Amino acid sequence: MSQTIVVKIGTSSLTQPDTGYLALATIAQVVDSLSRLRKLGHQVILVSSGAVGVGCMRLGLTERPRTISMKQAVAAVGQGRLIRTYDDLFTALQQPIAQVLLTRSDLVQRSRYVNAYRTFRQLLKLGVIPIVNENDTLAVEELKFGDNDTLSALVASLIGADWLFLLTDVDRLYSADPRYDPNARPIALVNQIDELEALHVEVGDRGTNWGTGGMVTKISAARIATTAGVRTVITEGRSPQNIEKILQGEAIGTLFEPQPQPFNARKRWIAHGLLPAGKLYLDSGAVNAIRQAGKSLLAAGIKEVEGEFQSQDAVQLCDSRGQEIARGIVNYSSVELQKIRGCRSEDIPSILGYEGAETVVHRDNLVLS
Predict the structure, then answer these.
(1) For 20, left (φ over 0), alpha (ψ -120 to 50), or beta?
(2) How many folded domains does the chain comprise?
(3) pLDDT tens, 263-322?
(4) According to the annotation, is 217 in a ligand binding site?
(5) Does 53 belong to an annotated binding site?
(6) pLDDT of 20-78, one tens digit each?
(7) Is 216 annotated as belonging to a binding site?
(8) Where in the sequence is the domain holding 83, given as residue range(s)?
(9) How many CB atoms lie within 10 A of CB 338?
(10) Alpha-carbon torsion 83, 85, 88, 93, what sign?
(11) Which amino acids does the record list as binding substrate (predicted)?
């Protein structure tokens, strides 16, 4: 049975830890494994880190750049060399590839989001393996994915993938960092990500010297992917052949089960593509109406408005403690909402002086967190 598979491999797996040079043996194994998956009929997307690390090596830098401009320059040097390495290895196996560089804004605008979806689908239909990375050369700080774990989860959500494999420098998720804690317990299955807190799982917030992510970003990525209905696995990057074994049912790595009722395509975009421009704090009645009854948000339920935003921007819907309960697309600007918050819908025309939408956030444009 053909499945759509997204594989993310991090800098820690792609490079040698002591020098930052490309780990060509590992890359060759990844290429071989993904080409084999294609021959088995699966559709495959590779999200690959490494451009900045390769750029540092090419320029003789001994540590990762700290400023955005320096990182962008180094990424521009490294990306071409990285994709050339992939192209040489995949070409030897007669497997065509494509380079796809994304910025966060490609997923924020609905038209660009849909266009990205169509491009990926056409590439997969052609039998191509897209190789995805963040466009570090153009991305600005407020529109960055932050790490490729998040990027891979958003790509998996975008295309409605069946599987997301997060290849890293450990073989699975543990209750603590096994490199430092001999009592760390392996975790094979996670049905609900909130379970990890009950298991007292400790995750580091950093990866290697050359990478940007740690286990915390992988768990965050798993949360994004599983809410989109994507089965997610954390496993060892230096054994990419395990992907095929996992697809055949072997219990390797840590498996995160997808949510039983994943979002549809539009709600996946609202939940994961959009960046919230503000917050609405709601009273308990509005919170219950949204959470329990699946209703739209009305102006009467809004206690406080935070941030500056326009109509059709995304906002976070929070309870009185500031805990996000949902997010959605608003029908009013922040200026308008300051005037009508706490008011009944039938009073809105007289307050604003013109007819407006009955709902502040319609339930079709609202996603529970």
Answers:
(1) left
(2) 2
(3) 788 888 898 888 899 999 999 999 999 998 889 999 999 999 999 999 999 999 999 999
(4) yes
(5) no
(6) 678 899 999 999 999 999 999 999 999 998 888 888 888 988 888 888 888 888 988 99
(7) yes
(8) 4-267
(9) 12
(10) negative
(11) 49, 136, 148
Contact between residue 33 and residue 240 where contact means Cβ atoms under 8 Å apart: yes
8 labeled binding residue: yes
* Residues 318, 213 within the same domain: no
Length, in residues, of the chain: 369
Report d(CA 26, CA 179) in Å as an integer: 21
What is the spatial distance between Cα 280 and Cα 7, in angstroms, rounded to a whole number?
A: 36
Q: Would you say 214 is a known binding-site residue?
A: yes
CB distance 160 to 227 below 8 Å: no
End-to-end CA gap in the chain:
32
Query: What residues contact 165, with CB distance under 8 A and at least 6 apart?
Result: 5, 6, 7, 8, 232, 233, 235, 243, 246
Q: At what angle do helices 68-92 and 24-39 cross, to 10 degrees?
A: 60
Residue whose structure tokens are 């990057």: 237
What's the rounded Cα separation, in Å, for the pair 270 and 366?
8
136 is in an annotated binding site: yes
207 is in an annotated binding site: no
Q: What angle do CA 153, 158, 164 make, to 5 degrees?
A: 35
Closest Cα partner for 256 from 146, 149, 367?
149
What backbone phi and psi angles, to 5 degrees, belong to 351? -75, -45
Verify that 263 and 282 share a domain, yes or no: no
Q: Can you give the CATH number for the domain in which 24 is found? A: 3.40.1160.10
Q: Which residue has the tokens 């071409």?
A: 80
| Token output for 66 | 């700290």
Residue 245 known to bind ligand: no
The DSSP result for 248-311, as a single string, is: TT---SEEEPPPSS---HHHHIIIII-----EEEE-HHHHHHHHTT-PPB-GGGEEEEES---T
Q: Pairing mode, if any, of strands 4-9 and 43-48?
A: parallel
Tokens for 76?
Answer: 């521009």
**Could you tell me the strand order of the sheet in which 4-9 lies?**
97-102, 129-134, 43-48, 4-9, 163-168, 231-236, 254-256, 189-190
Q: Are 145 and 151 contacting, i.e. CB atoms less than 8 angstroms apart?
A: yes
Q: Are residues 246 and 118 in the same domain?
A: yes
Read off the pTM.
Answer: 0.85
